[in-house]
From TrEMBL:
Catalysed transformations (reactions): an acyl phosphate + sn-glycerol 3-phosphate = a 1-acyl-sn-glycero-3-phosphate + phosphate
Name of this chain's protein: Glycerol-3-phosphate acyltransferase
GO BP field: phospholipid biosynthetic process
Matching NCBIfam families: glycerol-3-phosphate 1-O-acyltransferase PlsY
Alphabetical UniProt keywords: Acyltransferase, Cell membrane, Lipid biosynthesis, Lipid metabolism, Membrane, Phospholipid biosynthesis, Phospholipid metabolism, Transferase, Transmembrane, Transmembrane helix
Lineage: Bacteria, Pseudomonadati, Myxococcota, Polyangia, Nannocystales
Length: 208
């Protein structure tokens, strides 16, 4: 790993680590860490500030990861080992959002930033994931389920698309794993709700 690549990774980390959700929330007199889920991402921003402001947070999260990656792709793309170098810059950007130094390494879940990264590196996979997210959200009314499904879809579409270099496929798999890990509290909560619902149904059946 060259010093130049390390500088690019550090820059991507610092840029993508800017907590735009927190900044937008404070401009509105709201600390996203103290409302709703406590997350600084777009979903909690929608709950706390409404759709328009939530969409703004989403767009800024997409841009702050996508722009450094687009610059890295332009710089490293034509060089030997370009895809691997760009993938490392992209990974640094995601880690900047998820573990930002500005917030003592307590950041968002990385969904919007991952979308921004793959909008640059594998546009078809990113756009398919958005459609899957929208459909899953419509069916389940649970944003976390849509995000988790979309993360897996990006991996699959990137894998089957011959135009996507292998380093980007590996990156997609790594980010999907990170996103699932970051959503573990949501998964535990959903399983708990499902178990409680089954117990209530069983109790009603016994009382009938």
């Amino acid at each position: 790993m060259t010093f130049e690549l390390l500088i690019w990774m550090l820059a991507a980390y610092l840029i993508a680590g800017i907590p735009v959700g927190l900044v937008v929330g404070r401009a509105r007199g709201i600390d996203l860490r103290e409302v709703g889920s406590g997350n600084i991402g777009a979903t909690n921003a929608v709950r706390a500030m409404g759709k328009a402001w939530g969409l703004l947070v989403f767009a800024l999260d997409v841009a702050k990861a996508g722009l450094p990656v687009a610059a890295a792709l332009h710089h490293f793309g034509p060089t030997p080992g370009g895809p691997s170098k760009v993938a490392l810059v992209a990974l640094a950007a995601i880690l900047g959002h998820v573990f930002p130094i500005y917030l003592r390494f307590r950041g968002g879940k990385g969904v919007a930033c991952a979308f921004g990264v793959f909008l640059v590196l594998a546009p078809k996979a990113a756009l398919v994931s958005v459609l899957v997210y929208a459909q899953t959200l419509w069916l389940t009314r649970i944003s976390a389920v849509g995000s988790l499904t979309a993360a897996l879809v990006i991996v699959v579409v990137a894998w089957v698309d011959p135009s996507v270099p292998l380093p980007y496929v590996i990156l997609a798999a790594a980010l999907a794993g990170l996103i699932w890990e970051r959503h573990r509290p949501n998964l535990q909560q959903m399983f708990e709700h499902a178990r409680n619902a089954r117990e209530r149904e069983a109790k009603l059946d016994r009382n009938e």
